[in-house]
Amino acid sequence: MGTEIVTLAAPQELQATGIRKGLLEDLALKILYLNGEMSLVELSNHMCLAIGVVEEIFQFFRKEQLCEVKGMSGSHRIVASGQGKQRAADLLTLSQYAGPAPVSLEDYSARIRAQSVQHAQVRPTDLARAFQQIVLDEDTLARLGTAVISGTSAFLYGPSGTGKTTVAAGIAAIYNDTVRVPYAVEIDNSIIAVYDPGVHERTDEVFSLERDRRWILCRRPRVFVGGDLTAEMLDLPAKSASRYYTAPLQMKANNGVLILDDFGRQRMRPEELLNRWMTPLDRRIDFLTLPGGRKFEIPFDPFVVFSTNLEVQRIADEAFLRRIPNKIKMDYATPEQFVAIFRRECAVRSLSYEAGLPEYLARHVSVEIKQPLCQCHPHDLLNQVSWAAAYQREEPRLTAESLRQACQNYFLAAGKS
Fold first, then answer.
1. Other CB atoms closer than 10 Å to residue 368's CB: what's the count?
2. CA distance 248 to 225
3. Do 320 and 349 fall into the same domain?
4. CA distance 226 to 256
5. Smallest Cα–Cα separation from 66: which of 49, 50, 51, 85?
6. Domain containing 169: what range?
7. What is the pTM of this model?
């Protein structure tokens, strides 16, 4: 799957930004107040706007006596005047946002739809590359590929320890293209910060004054949330001390992957989440509400992955399950898969072993201890061997005895786990 870089042209005039003139002037004044003396080029770079747009703002500042010119160094160097400082301080009590200029809701919605996760091209080679460090059978790979290319949602379910979390976390790596993510979006004079360095992985891009720098080129995002999920994470806060807002999880995940791990164990009740997302999963749109009560529509465009080891029918009703078209069971490993995982783990750790030892461990776990073969067992048991060796101040050695001791430490007695 190739990489397609979409270049968005930088607006050269204030009117072409799609943002109200007064909002950009207020934003520029706050930035100038907080940073002290700046050249117009520096202000342009901070706001991610073309120099022509900043020149228009500068002319307004001069007319309203909100700035003082301190000199020239390629462009005017300015500082907030006394009147400008007072106005900026007042503005900061209304909104503390002083970052790059936002894009409009209309432009944001159009861009999200243009680079929808449902438009991504996915091929078997992409699955093989993304999961090359995981042992998965061809049927599971094919079902995962089918789910991802749908761009909708999937349930990964099955017993604990069968690799659901690992697989879910690896889904974002299937995509091999890039998308544009805005620093922020403006809605009704409110600013919602979207770009999050913890979620959005920037890619190298040649700097260009012709490009709209309010949009960052990123890999498709991955948002991972587990048992700490609350209803508040899916909506804008009712109040904000900084007077601007951070995008909720699903908005940050747009055009990428949103993973709800351990579904059914969140602080947010499953039925509450299901009711909240019934419409977004069905119609691919979401509704958020600003603190003033203004409700607005945004695209809902993540590929949503629900991962659970609970019985699916107990945590989701039929109406909701119909809206999740892909349901993939992650089952226990076969002896052959178990051996392959063990060998791969040993290779990663540079651990050597005698011939037949992986097969011995598979028999010991399944026949003698009477435990199902879980994909997590090789990793966890090799940890036990390493810890025991570290305690004895020795190099870890893989033997039948060291693996039996690891099993004794790891599994509950009487064949219960």
1. 11
2. 12
3. no
4. 17
5. 85
6. 106-329
7. 0.89
